[in-house]
Structure formats: structure tokens, C-alpha cells
Amino acid sequence: MTTAPAKAGWRFRQPSVIPGFGLTLGFSLAYLTLIILIPLSGLVWRSAALGWADFWAIATDRRTINALEISFGTAFIAAAVNVVFGTIVAWVLVRYNFPGRRIVDAMVDLPFALPTAVAGIALTTLYAPNGWLGSLLAPLGIKVAYTPLGIVIALIFIGLPFVVRTVQPIMEEIDKEVEEVAATLGANRFQTIARVLLPGLAPAIVTGFALAFARGVGEYGSVIFIAGNLPYKSEIAPLLIVIRLEEYNYAAATAIAAIMLALSFVMLLVINLVQTWSRKRYG
Amino acid sequence: MEVRVANVRKEFERFPALHDVSLDIKSGELIALLGPSGSGKTTLLRLIAGLERPTKGTIFFGEEDASQKSIQERNVGFVFQHYALFRHMTVADNIGFGLKVRHGPTRPSAQEIRRRASELLDLVQLSGLEKRYPAQLSGGQRQRVALARAMAIEPAVLLLDEPFGALDAQVRRELRRWLRDIHDATGYTTVFVTHDQEEALELADRVVVMSQGSIEQVGTADEIYDTPNSPFVYGFIGESSSLPVKIEDGQVWIADRPIGLSAPQAPQGEATLFFRPHDVELVDECNGCIAGTVAASRRVAGTRRVELEIGGERQRVEVELPVDHPAAQKSRVAFRPRRWKLFPAV
């Protein structure tokens, strides 16, 4: 068979003989542009109108930096906590059959459905110094409501379903034989979990972390009730944006938003790369 | 190591999977558990491994009662049909896993583990694939890695659950010979489960035929094939035909005619006659023989298989004829089994 000379230039690899590639790609691009790209570029454009010096002044403002630190810091901690406990919850739901399992399973999704303000108010009532849990913690010198700790708790609540729901389906696919083989090779339960099961779940856990983290960074409704919103101490970046908006300081609001956007994008990109790498490795 | 299964019974939620099974496996033996699905062969294998606990009975490894030991302590090598390799580990890490999880002084150094892994890879003829991941191997290669991993811990017994079940016929035959060679080279006591009788008869020193949670017969390939001890084994191993017959005066009768087979030892009354379709003698004059009308005739590889209807009941049996035999053209064929066996009618 003779091979035709390679065509000059770059072209799409024909994905499949079944039609649909052009249509669906076109739709996806149009859709993403409309829904995500245009609003976000509007945001960047507005903040660009600010001029570099002003932008830099807002970006390096102590209050902005603190708000960003609090937002990203608490979201990171909450996502990390959710990774541990969300994985355990998923494990219990997948592995064990107990009365009420279905109900627990449904309960996991509640933070998805509940208006976040309701969650925030409920948590504040619980953890306020005179609340049920707050009054128990107060004598120990632990203050939850109106501190960053309160923000972390609200974000744990909000982020839990993301971890559980991404890890659960992968966990269901774990082959029981893999565990049995590990046992016959002499591995105890701890070794089996640490060396055999968790590495297989790692990509799903990273995804769950990324989702919970992203959600936590952007969370507003539940946090503002429990955070106390003290500037420099427990004020989150989304709240600062709202405050600037209420001051009709649109430029400052969009500048902070643009910074958040850039930071989030970089972090999600890194997480995505980690994932691609682990997928490639573990097939 | 010798393995002795003594009066083991296993129930799953009151449903008996094994009834009172006893089996002695000699040290260094290669033994096959053969049976249809649901016969309890995999359950027996898992009981030996310790992956299940017997409801009753004991399993001895040598003189020791292994039933009291955990899976980890039993030191068995188990190979699953679908390999069960650790996907996130390289081939070398998979093989070294059993050594790496050991504690204290029994754990070899990292270097020693690496050396063992590549030694085992040589043994399973996969030298140089240490750094690959399971996803990058073919089915046959994965199963070799799984076997190497099981042998890395120098197991007391090697247990293989349908090891070649997921592979295509060509690879299967190849691996069969290869497993025999490995067994001869290493001498591990090996038990494997299969539903493929060809595999069992060709590979094993002894075959354990199982049915409905019980052992039907234990013996070498010759014993199992030539002297089956039950209608099940006769029917399950190799080709067979059966006919309802009657024993009278030490003669075998079909309907009201003796068929020229004498059975002086057999008790009077109803019985079932078993014979192999290829082990018959064609006769011209039916003077004490089985005769039937040809109902169907099929060419199967080197022979012609003819289905005959016998007697008024139109019982169907199969016999094998040479391809060019004139009888294949006739509408009636008469024959007499050369080797046969009678079992009391059920």
C-alpha cells in the first residue's frame, strides 16, 4: 500500500465515523463563551479600566490581602478536613449495610439543597457562645462563631457532599479481590487501606478536594452569618467585594474579584494537572 | 506442604455450598478441582486460603490446624481469574508487595526485594517489564505477574482460581504448559480450580471432580476417564451416551432383546448403561447388539457423529464412525459398546 504524502498544515484528527463532533464542539464553545467567558472577561475588562497603579494599590491593601488569605486558607482547611471525613462517610455508605443507610445517603446531599443562609444561621445559633455547642466549647476557651474557625466549620458543611459524591462511585468499583489478594500476601488491614485502596482512590479524592475547595472559596451565604465579618480577622473576600459594591466602588470590587479569579484558576489548573498525571499513571 | 481438608461443611446463610468434604493433598502435588458452576469448587479453594471460614470441619496445613489462623498467617499464594493486580503499582512493586508488608527482621531489604522480583519475572518469562504498569500488559502477561506475586512470599500452597478463564484459547493452551513447567521447577503444592476438563486432565497430577457441593471422584486423568465411579463423572468427563436398560440373568437387555453384553455381577432390574461414542464396535448382523435408526449425522473434525434412535421409546444415543465408513450411508446402524459401565437406574 502506498501512503499518500502528508498534507501540509494542521488539521483535526477525525475522531470517529459517527457524526456529531463538529456540532457538539461548536455548541460547547458557544455555550461556554456565553455562560462563562463573556461574564468573566467583562470582569477582567472592568478591573483593567482601573489602571495598573490603582489595581496594585487595591491588591496590596492589607484588608484585601487578609480577606483573600482568610478565604483561601479556610477553604483549604475545610476541603482538607472534608477529604478525610468525606472519604470515611463514603466508605461507610459503600461498604456497610445498616438500617437507615438510605437516609444517611440522602442526608449527605442536604448541604447541596439547603439555602446557604439557612445553614449559616443554624450553625451560628449552634456555635454562638450561648448556643448548644458554643456554650460547651466556651469554658474550654474555644470560640467558634465569629472567628475563622466558624468559617471553616461552615465550609466543611458546604463542601462535604462534593467529596462524598466524587469518591463514592469510584469506591463502589473497588474490586474485593484486590483486598483479598493483599490479605493473602500478608498485608494487615491498615496496610491494605494505605497501600492498596487509597492510592486507587487518589484521583477521585483530589477531584473532591478541588470541588470542595472551589466551592469554599466562593461561598458567601453561610459564611457571613457565622464569620462575624471583622475586617482583617474574619472577613472573607466575597464579602469584601459586596461591601465595595455597596460603596459604589465598582472598580475595587471587580479588582478583588479578578484577583480571586486568577488565584482560583491557577489552583484548579494545578489540581487538574495533578489529576491527569495520576490518571495516566494508574490507568 | 501437605494440605488436609477434613469433613468440611460450608453454608452461606443456611444454604449449603459444601457438604462434608474431605480431601488429602500431597506435598508438591498439582491438583485440579473440576466441576460445573455451583459445584463448590471455588468455595473449597477459598476455604483452603482462609478467605472463608468453614461452618464445620478443619483444614490442616501439614500437622497444623490452619482453620485457627488468619489469612495473613496462612501464607498462601492466591491467584484470581481476573488477576487482581494493584493498578497503581509497577510490575516489580506488585511482585514485591508481599515482602514489603512484612514486619521486622522477616522483611528483606529493598534491594533484596528488587532482586527477588526480577528473579521471579525471569521465571515467568517477563524479564525487563519491571517498570510497566498492569494497564500496559496483555491478559496473559498480567496473569503471569499475578502468579509471580503469589510465589514471591514462598507460599505453603499455591491456590489458583480459574487462572486461565479470562484468556483466549491460544494463550490458555500456552500458559497451561507453562504452568506445568513452573510447577515442576518450583515444586509448590498447587491447587487450581477449573471448569475446563481438558485443562484439568492435561495439567493436574490428580483431578477432583465435584458436583453440588460434594466430591464425586478423586483420581489421575486415566482413572477419572477410564473408570468413572458415578453417572455424573461419566457424563461430565468426555463424551458419553447413556441408555436405560434392564438386567436379567446376568445379561443386559434393551426392551425385550439382550444386547450381547453380560453383566454377571450386576443386580437384577433397571439400570443405566453408559458408554463412550467413540468406543463402539459396528456389527453387520444384529445378533445381540444395539440397533437404531439414523436420526442425524454430523461431521466433527476427523470423525462422523451419528445420532441413533433406539427402540420403541426412541431413546437417542450418539456413536462415532470413521468418516468413510459405509454404515454412515445406511438408515439403520447396529453396534455394540466395547467398553461400558452400568449404574443403577435413578
TrEMBL record, chain A:
Keywords: Membrane, Sulfate transport, Transmembrane, Transmembrane helix, Transport. The complex is composed of two ATP-binding proteins (CysA), two transmembrane proteins (CysT and CysW) and a solute-binding protein (CysP). This is Sulfate transport system permease protein CysT. It comes from the Bacteria. It is a multi-pass membrane protein. The chain crosses the membrane at residues 21-45, 70-94, 106-128, 140-164, 196-214, 250-274. It is found in: Cell membrane. InterPro entries: CysT_permease, MetI-like, MetI-like_sf, Sulph_transpt2. GO terms for molecular function: ABC-type sulfate transporter activity. Belongs to the binding-protein-dependent transport system permease family. CysTW subfamily. It comes from Mesorhizobium wenxiniae. PROSITE patterns: ABC_TM1. GO terms for cellular component: plasma membrane. Part of the ABC transporter complex CysAWTP (TC 3.A.1.6.1) involved in sulfate/thiosulfate import. Probably responsible for the translocation of the substrate across the membrane.
From TrEMBL, chain B:
It holds the Pfam family TOBE_3. GO terms for biological process: quaternary ammonium group transport. It comes from the Bacteria. One of its GO terms (cellular component) is ATP-binding cassette (ABC) transporter complex. Residues 3-237 form the ABC transporter domain. Keywords: ATP-binding, Cell membrane, Membrane, Nucleotide-binding, Sulfate transport, Translocase, Transport. GO terms for molecular function: ABC-type sulfate transporter activity; ATP binding; ATP hydrolysis activity. Belongs to the ABC transporter superfamily. This is Sulfate ABC transporter ATP-binding protein.
